[in-house]
Specification:
Layout (H helix, E strand, L loop, with lengths): L4 H19 L3 E4 L4 H14 L8 E5 L5 H14 L3 E5 H6 L13 H13 L3 E3 L8 H4 L4 E4 L27 E4 L7 H11 L10 E8 L2 E4 L13 E6 L12 E2 L5 H10 L4 H5 L9 H8 L3
Parallel strand pairs: 1-2, 1-4, 2-3, 4-6
Antiparallel strand pairs: 5-6, 7-8, 7-9, 9-10
Length: 296
């Protein structure tokens, strides 16, 4: 029997998750409610059901998320009856542990994530990052080690040959694990379609009030208002990724079903982060700089 590329990717990802769960003591699955973390969650269910997942689910919540995504997150976690840990950025701001600078809280997530890892003594964190997303992510191994300060050194990574992974940790270290490393955005969408996964509604075309800034369509919200000369208008959009509303751009689209979304993704030549994430446009090394500090 022949194995499809999607089945091969699924088997590889499940292998990674089982290996890490067996080798490390306190893993956690990072979850945003977005398409990649939804695929990651389905893979975890396939790897460990019918038992409970051998790790909790963690969401670092900026407080500036799309309301539709938070509603979806809470409903889904209740349906699958798993443990959700929410690490709110707002609490860290209120306590003075991080300082808010500008509307975007994306960079503040790093300190809050590292606090949650230390508090719960997690030694491995599963994430939904893929190598095709951005050049810094393309440098990472499946197992990406962080030092005692949570920092990443792209020049000091361990070889991964023949799908063999060295999960040995030194005192204070932890590892980020990316089972979807070898997937593409199109693979993710095909898997969502094959598995019949429900998504937050913002992934499909809908009417939203937006304004254009630096070539991106940003949603009007209580946390981000148009500047002088930026006109708010209503149009049909969808999102390729979810995150902080203040830096996540929409794309014009009439794609109201998965088949049409997949056709649009197949024809685009711009990565999802390149098209829709303002924080990655600060410099050509913006993502790598954040990852070195401990970002996802």
């Amino acid at each position: 029997m022949s194995v499809s590329e999607l089945q091969r990717l699924e088997a590889e990802s499940i292998h990674v998750m089982r290996e890490v769960a067996a080798e490390l003591e306190r893993p956690v699955l990072m979850f945003s409610g977005g398409k990649d973390s939804l695929v990651l969650l389905r893979l975890a269910e396939k790897a460990f059901r019918p038992g409970a997942l051998p790790f909790p689910i963690l969401h670092v919540d900026t407080g500036h998320n799309f309301p539709e995504v938070i509603e979806f997150r809470d409903r889904l976690i209740e349906e699958i009856d798993e443990k959700l840990i929410v690490a709110p950025v707002q609490e860290a701001i209120d306590a003075g542990r991080v300082k808010e600078e500008g509307p975007s809280r994306n960079r503040l997530q790093t300190a809050v994530l590292l606090e949650a890892i230390e508090e719960h003594r997690f030694d491995a964190a599963f994430g939904g990052a893929r190598r095709d997303e951005e050049r810094a992510r393309a440098k990472e191994r499946v197992l990406s080690f962080r030092d005692e300060f949570g920092q990443w050194d792209p020049r000091a990574q361990r070889p991964e040959v023949w799908n063999l992974y060295n999960g040995r940790l030194r005192q204070g270290e932890h590892v980020r694990v990316f089972p979807l490393s070898n997937w593409t955005e199109l693979d993710v969408w095909h898997y969502i379609q094959a598995e019949g996964l429900e998504l937050p509604p913002i992934y499909l075309a809908h009417q939203r009030r937006v304004f254009e800034r630096d070539g991106m369509l940003l949603a009007e919200s209580e946390w981000l208002e148009p500047a002088e000369g930026e006109e708010v208008f209503e149009t049909s959009v969808r999102y390729r990724t979810v995150g902080d509303m203040t830096v996540t751009g929409a794309v014009r689209s009439e794609a109201a079903d998965l088949e049409t979304v997949i056709a649009e993704i197949a024809s685009t030549r711009v990565s999802e982060r390149g098209e829709t994430r303002a924080d990655d446009r600060v410099s050509s090394a913006a993502m790598e700089d954040r990852k070195r500090e401990g970002y996802f």
